[in-house]
Structure formats: structure tokens, C-alpha cells
Fold this protein.
Amino acid sequence: MLFLLLPILLLARDALSCTPLLPRDDNNSTYPFIATGSDEPADLATTGYFINHVGLNTNNLTRSMEFYTRVIGLRHMFTYHVNEYFSVTYMGHSQGGRNGSAYQTTAELLQNKQNSAGLLELLYFNRTTLGGEDIPRSDQKISTLSHLGLIVPDPEATQARLEEYGVPIYKKYGEGLPKEEVEGNPLSLPSLFFGDTSGLSAEVLEEMKDTLGKLNLLNIFAADPDGNTIEILPFHEPSLFG
Ligand SMILES: *[C@@H]1O[C@H](CO)[C@@H](O)[C@H](O)[C@H]1NC(C)=O
Ligand SMILES: *[C@@H]1O[C@H](CO)[C@@H](O)[C@H](O)[C@H]1NC(C)=O
Ligand SMILES: *[C@@H]1O[C@H](CO)[C@@H](O)[C@H](O)[C@H]1NC(C)=O
Ligand SMILES: *[C@@H]1O[C@H](CO)[C@@H](O)[C@H](O)[C@H]1NC(C)=O
């Protein structure tokens, strides 16, 4: 049962240490609870490491770039055309201010490439002249990529913006997780969080959805054009950590 805590903790955006998820010291088995990380410093040899980008395979580069620029506000940094079949594109929010308020030229974005966090790399294999299948949408096939997380100053304004652009929204601001199974909606299937839940009782599954619904009350879940789920979180959120 304890492994079921993992998604809850991940969603709590808690700094998970490498500690295995063991019963708490007081043997208090009341769920949910949060186990915060230890203050043990990272190995000094890793000083200066940070996550710079996430890479997504994309089926239509134009469509994905339009979405990430127009709707999400990323800037196109560059596209490296390997040949007529394959290209690599970097996108990033202007990071002169972490909230995107400080304008940077493309040259400045490129200059800061190795010093930026939260960049997106779009990998595109153009199979139109070769035939072949699209890569399966990640909201229709369980994979180990769960979602991307985006911070916004005003989630309700962002939600209105998504609606204006016709972006599929799986969970709205202020609502719990959808109860009914809706075709193409991964959250109703909870696969996005849990993967394969066969063998779990309906009651426990409902409880998990309720708990996660409460935890994510102020978050929005939407999809990019390839079905990658985007979690949208308010910059100002009630603290989970007291
Ligand atoms: C918790 O339970 C374990 C195993 O039953 C026991 O060894 C341990 O002493 C308990 N800890 C506390 C703080 O009660
Ligand atoms: C057990 O955990 C619950 C929920 O966090 C808390 O309300 C309760 O006081 C805890 N009990 C003990 C004995 O620590
Ligand atoms: C790719 O997306 C663009 C922009 O949405 C669209 O105009 C174009 O038809 C799409 N190409 C294919 C092959 O579906
Ligand atoms: C963005 O950050 C700047 C600098 O910290 C701050 O002055 C500004 O108010 C912020 N804007 C928003 C929308 O949070």
C-alpha cells in the first residue's frame, strides 16, 4: 500500500529525499500525510547541477510551436535542422525575471541557454513523406511522463485564455478530479497519476481521487497538442507545509 503515497507526495511538490517511504516514527497510519525531506546537503560533487530542459517528441512541430508560443508564452530560441527529416527546437520563457516580465532578445535567451531552467526541447521527426504512424498521444497511452508543471500569477485568467484558444481542459480551477470516465480524458481514468490501477478496489480509488482532488483544487490540468498534460499552478498557493 505504501507505494500509493508516491503520487500524492509528488503532487505535493515536496522535496522527496531518497528515503524509502516507511511508516512514520509514531506509527500513525492516518493518511494522507506529508513526509518532508531531510536537511542532508547534496553531494558537493553535484554543486551546479540543475534541470535545464524537458524534451518532448512532437507529431506536428508547427502546431506545438504555435501552442507553446501563443498560448503558453514561450519564445522560440532556435531550431537545429539535422536534415529534411529531423529537427530539434528549443523554447523558453524570458528569464530576465522568473515570472517572464523581463524582456530578453533571442540573442540574450541563447546566451543564457546553459543558465536557464524550464526550457522545452521539441524533437520532431517529419514522417509525412515516409508514411508511418504518429507517436501515440501521452494522454491515451500510459507512460512514465506524467505532466509538465507551469506556474501562473492568475490561474482563472489563464483558464479563460485556454478556453479562448480551445485547449482541452481536464480539470478546472476550483473543481475536484472528474468523477465520470470521459473518453480521451486521462484524469477520469486516473492513469495520469496512478498508471494501472487494476486490482485496486473502487472505494480506495475514489478515496485517492478525492484526496488528490482536494490537493489540486486550485490547479488546472490541460493538454498540449500531443496530449502531454500540463498542470497549471497558482504562484500564490496555500502552503501545504504549515
Ligand atoms: C512502530 O512500530 C514498529 C513495528 O511494530 C516498532 O518496532 C516501533 O517501536 C514503533 N515505533 C513507535 C514510536 O511506536
Ligand atoms: C495522526 O495523524 C493525524 C493526521 O495527520 C493527526 O490528526 C493525529 O493527531 C496524529 N496522531 C498522532 C498520535 O500523532
Ligand atoms: C500541422 O499543424 C499546422 C498548424 O496547426 C496545420 O496547419 C497543419 O495542417 C498540420 N500538419 C499536418 C500534417 O497535420
Ligand atoms: C514579476 O517579477 C518582478 C520582479 O521580481 C516583479 O516586480 C513583478 O511584480 C512580478 N510580476 C508578476 C505578475 O508577478
